[in-house]
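Hey all, quick one. A colleague (J.T.) asked me to put the S-adenosyl-L-homocysteine job into the tracker so the inputs and the structure tokens live in one place instead of scattered across chat threads. No bug as far as I know, just bookkeeping. Sequence used:
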Amino acid sequence: MTELLNHLLARIASQGPISLAEYMSTCLLHPEHGYYTTRDPLGARGDFTTAPEISQMFGEVIGLGLAQAWLDQDTPEHFVLAELGPGRGSLMADILRATRRVPGFHAAAKVHLVEASPALRKAQAARLAGYAPTWHDTAAELPDDVPLYLVANEFFDALPIRQFQRTADNWSEILVTATEGRLTRARATPAPLDALANRLADTAEGDLVETCAPAQAIAAEIGHRIATQGGVALIIDYGDWRSQGDTFQALRRHEYADPLEMPGHSDLTAHVDFEAIAQAAAPAKYTRLTGQGLFLERLGITARAQALAQHLSGTPLENHISAHRRLTHPEEMGTLFKVLGLYPEGATLPAGLSE
Ligand code: SAH
């Protein structure tokens, strides 16, 4: 229960306050006590639920969208079908089932998964047995000699962020320190920051901005592959075009919690800055940032929902209808969650997305 807290307190005692990024990556991925390393956090009995766990329709229409991109790019004979942070493997399983009847797609695809959690790798191996996936620790390890068709759902929000509060013309980093055995926030001495020089124009004193260097590094890896080899990436997450304000949050048993309490026992996330990802992915091109609801509608989720509904009645039918609503409705996941596509210069845009 308190092992990770003790570990963090000892580290702060010996080296001083730590960044939120260091706090977040320790809580999520500490080899023995990390949140993702030790458990499967998804589903009704876990801490949060994601779109692929809500309904198979999510992965099915995305799978057909990826297959369309493969057809649009002249059916490359070999390609990498990749997912970042595949959780239980449900999204990839639904993508693979839905594309089974696309002639040549499976024969050309090799499944690659980027996953840090041994517990979740086990779940993915069980779910995707028969497709012989290859696992990687980082996106940098993905092959770079064939086209890349990639999906990432609720992956980028789990990457460690840093927070900076603006002073008159400098930035003061928000840090994690300890007071009487409890974790609390502290502010570093204000200093100039090259990475945020461009944000002096659109912020005022007191405003808070978040940065996520790992997200930019991963976007650069993906963008490079897509620009040079072809393919597309679909990045789905909550967030906005530009980071502004404190979005660091914790979820435990489907309720919001204090992110500094019970380290290692809640899911820690921050909203995704899609602008930073789009720019880091250059020279790959990026699409307009589009609400998940509109994206799924354009991919035909309602027709798919109606087809599935024909075989259902009673409670299963009610659940199915409410799953469609949860994925698409503006008051549910429809506008909070957004989709960014990456594609090569001159290629057809990924289905469901616009310029
Ligand atoms: N995409 C899944 C799971 C989302 S949870 C779904 O939609 O259901 C976040 C996933 O990213 C988990 O599989 C987690 O173990 C993985 N993850 C988080 N941080 C990671 C990192 N730095 N490197 C690789 N995988 C990571």
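Adding what we noticed when we looked at it: Residues 28, 36, 42, 50, 52-53, 85-87, 91, 114-117, 120, 153-155, 158-159 surround S-adenosyl-L-homocysteine (CB under 6 Å). The radius of gyration is 21 Å.
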